[in-house]
Each structure stands twice: as C-alpha cells, then as structure tokens.
Amino acid sequence: MTATVLQKFGLMRMSSRDPHEQHRVASSLEIFFDLVFVIAVSQASQNLHQGVVEGHAAATVLAYAMIFFAIWWAWMNFTCFASAFDSDDWLYRVMTIVQMGGVLVPVWAERARSTPWHPHHIAEHYSLFVLILLGESLLASANAIIDAVNTGEHVEGVVGLAAAGLVLAAGVWWM
C-alpha cells in the first residue's frame, strides 16, 4: 500500500523504530497487554498453591516452572516486537487486543531477520512487569490475611508470613 492509501485509512507504515530513540517508554497499550500475562501468572500461581496444599509439591512446582516459562516467553516476544515496531495506529491496537487471546510463534516471525529492539524500552518494560508481579504477590498476601481472619485459623502465622512476603517484595523492588 502506498503512504496515501495508508493515511486514508488512518494507518501508519509499520517499520522498525530507532533502537537509540530517546525517552522510549512502554505505552499504555503495552501495559494493558501485560495484564493478560498477569492473569496467566496469577492462575498458574493459584494452581501451584493448590498442588502444594494437596501434597503434590514436586510435580506442581515442575508444572508451574514450565507454565511460567511459556507465559514469560510469550510476554518477552511481544515486548521485543512492540519495542521495535509499535506504530500506534488503530490497526496495531486492534491486532494487539486480538493477540491477548493468544500469541504467534516468534521463531517463524523472525526467520528472515532479527528484530531491532530498543534496549531501554525492553529494560523498562521488564521492570514494569516485575512491578506488576510484585503487586500480585502483595494481593496474595492480603487475600491470605483476609481468609485467615474470616475463618479464624492460623491468623498469627499468616500475618507473619504476609509480613515476610511484603519484606521480600520490597527487597525485589528495591533491587
């Protein structure tokens, strides 16, 4: 399509962005997309918890590690793509939202040439994802306290465990 035809439909030609672009930050669409992965990590974490409670810790931890790797791999590849090619037109936005239901195989997408990703953008996006996951850990601690108070069971132990979780999350954030 020519530039005029693209403009007629409110589209921008998708081309690689400058890897040295100043002040490149994660867009609100990228952060919105990250929430899908937060949900996936949350679901995997709930399954991990349930498996450990039922006494299947070894098998459940292995399954969790594999699932977490798959989630992380999909998230990382979208982040690299967004760092290199985010055109921010309506079609890009719609296609990103469609991808929230599933992610394409990055090996096929990069077989012709590698993606010119932006190092600062990737680092910032990783930091934001870690921050979201830390928020999930704080939510899990809060839910544990609420459940303990509501059932009246192991309140002191859960509060101590939640406090330790807060300290660990704060330590990871601090780093």
Report on this structure:
This protein is an all-alpha fold. It contains seven helices and no strands. Helix 3 (57-85) runs antiparallel to helix 6 (119-151) and helix 6 (119-151) packs antiparallel against helix 7 (155-174).
What does this entry show, briefly?
73% of the residues lie in helices and 0% in strands. The chain is built from 7 helices and no strands. Helix 3 (57-85) packs antiparallel against helix 6 and helix 6 runs antiparallel to helix 7.
Protein topology:
Blueprint: H1 3-8, H2 28-53, H3 57-85, H4 90-99, H5 106-109, H6 119-151, H7 155-174
Helix pairs in contact: 2-3, 2-6, 3-6, 6-7
Q: Percent helix among the residues?
A: over 70%
Main β-sheet description: none
The arrangement of helices and strands along the chain is: HHHHHHH
Rounded mean pLDDT score? 82
Number of helical elements: 7
Q: N-to-C terminal Cα separation, in Å?
A: 47 Å
Bulk shape:
elongated
State which percent range the strand residues make up.
Answer: under 5%
